[in-house]
Design a protein that fits this description.
Largest sheet: none
Mean pLDDT: 86
Number of domains: 1
Shape: flat
Oligomer: single chain
Low-confidence stretches: none
Number of helices: 4
Strand content: under 5%
Number of strands: 0
Order of helices and strands: HHHH
């Protein structure tokens, strides 16, 4: 790769840094699966499994905050702020549903 020059190595290292957020993606995938499973339980019997609403809001809040941290590392501040605000809103919804169902 010596014949390609120095700029090529800088571009590839930049690409690796931007795409090196695999940990956040794995956490997001797990949380997404948990949201879907909790929602299925809610649809099966809403009265019996109404406490799963708290779990759905909590997992969704964690997903948004996790993605906000991912964009914070990428220096995409506008996306980070939007996701953090959505995460805070969902934490508020988690607290409201917790108080309503317990």
């Amino acid at each position: 790769m010596l014949f390609l020059g120095k700029n090529t190595s800088k571009d590839s290292s930049r690409r690796r840094r931007i795409n090196s957020s695999g940990g956040y993606d794995i956490i997001n995938t797990i949380l997404g699966i948990l949201v879907v499973i909790s929602t299925i339980f809610i649809f099966i019997d809403r009265e019996k499994n109404e406490k799963f609403f708290v779990a759905v809001f909590l997992f969704a809040a964690a997903m948004n905050i996790c993605m906000g941290l991912k964009y914070f590392k990428r220096n995409e501040i506008l996306k980070m702020v939007a996701l953090m605000l959505a995460g805070i809103f969902l934490i508020g919804m988690t607290i409201i549903t917790f108080l309503a169902f317990w």
